[in-house]
Amino acid sequence: MRYTTLCYLENPAGEYLMLHRVKKENDCNRDKWIGIGGKFLDGESPEECALREINEETGLTVTGYRYRGIVTFVSDRWETEYMHLFTATEWTGRVREDCDEGVLEWIHKDRLAALPQWAGDRIFLDLLRQGAPFFSLKLRYQGETLVYACLNGKELIL
């Protein structure tokens, strides 16, 4: 099992800082647009992991965030992943020019649907947009196809 974090940094213009994953070979997120995050280091809490990953990838130091939910990814290709999902609206610093993971870009929330993303990401981004309370979302993929989704114990119709 793999433990990760993902954070959507939102600016006052209604844009998320997105990462276009184009730099790493054999990246399961290759060519997709995702939030900012990564894998836990030994002994880290979800919050510590999220804050460290954000700083490493963007150069920003988050000062205001909200823990939004847990997403369980099950796949026939990759190990099961438990992702802790956050949003952030306050930080200090400037976005770095170069990121080892891909290209960073501010994208308005209304434009996200047109970008290459995982189908499950669209579900939790919609939950964030709706202001949903803390949630648990389970997503099952066959290859890159989402075949099952369950929100707070109730199966969603895909």
UniProtKB/TrEMBL annotation:
InterPro entries in the cross-refs: Mutator_MutX_prot, NUDIX_hydrolase-like_dom_sf, NUDIX_hydrolase_CS, NUDIX_hydrolase_dom
GO terms, molecular function: 8-oxo-7,8-dihydroguanosine triphosphate pyrophosphatase activity; metal ion binding
SUPFAM superfamilies xref list: Nudix
Residues forming coiled coils: none
rRNA-binding recorded as keyword: no
GO cellular component, one term: cytoplasm
Cofactor(s) this protein requires: Mg(2+)
GO terms under biological process: DNA repair
Name of one Pfam family that matches: NUDIX
Keywords: Hydrolase, Magnesium, Metal-binding
Location of the Nudix hydrolase domain: 1-130
Similarity comment: family membership: Belongs to the Nudix hydrolase family.
Protein name as it appears in the record: 8-oxo-dGTP diphosphatase
Species of provenance: Brotocaccenecus cirricatena
Taxonomic lineage from the root: Bacteria, Bacillati, Bacillota, Clostridia, Eubacteriales
